[in-house]
Write a structure and sequence with these properties.
- By secondary structure, the chain is of the alpha+beta class.
- The protein has a single domain, classed as Muramoyl-pentapeptide Carboxypeptidase, domain 2.
- Helix content is 52%, strand content 20%.
- It contains 5 helices and 4 strands; from the N terminus they run ααββααββα.
- It has a 4-stranded antiparallel sheet, covered by helices on one side.
- Strand 1 and strand 2 form a beta hairpin.
- Helix 1 packs parallel to helix 4.
- 28% of the residues are buried.
Length: 130
């Protein structure tokens, strides 16, 4: 029950952040370049977090967080903080950007990795697949 509450709280904050960015920038659609500009270089940087792009293409962006505001807690309680709260946050970000965006966590400092790594993938339309 506690895990579900943490995940839902994370989702709500992620959705709200993206909604705020959409209003600030007048965005109606997201793509990898817009995500890097408005989310990573904008909102995340303003929060004082260090994030870098590891890889990017027309339909995906892979990025690393080199800092974590919850690192001390995450090291002690990785399941609660990383697997529920943080995972929910990133799910909320992806969901707000529309249903065709899929989030995947690739690495996690709370689980012993040197950084947290995330990947967002946009579904391709029929035209783009050809």
């Amino acid at each position: 029950m506690q895990e579900r509450a943490l995940r839902e709280a994370g989702k709500a904050v992620g959705r709200q952040l993206v909604e705020t960015l959409e209003k600030e920038a007048g965005l109606s659609a997201w793509n990898p370049r817009g995500f890097v500009r408005h989310y990573l270089e904008g909102a995340i940087a303003r929060m004082g977090l260090l994030a870098v792009v590891a890889d990017m293409g027309e339909d995906f962006v892979q990025y690393r967080f080199l800092s974590c505001p919850f690192l001390e807690l995450a090291m002690s309680y990785p399941e609660m903080i990383c697997d529920h709260l943080d995972a929910g946050f990133h799910e909320g970000v992806a969901a707000r950007m529309k249903s065709d965006v899929i989030h995947e966590r690739l690495a996690c400092m709370g689980q012993g990795d040197a950084f947290c790594e995330q990947r967002l993938k946009w579904a391709r339309t029929g035209k783009e697949k050809e």
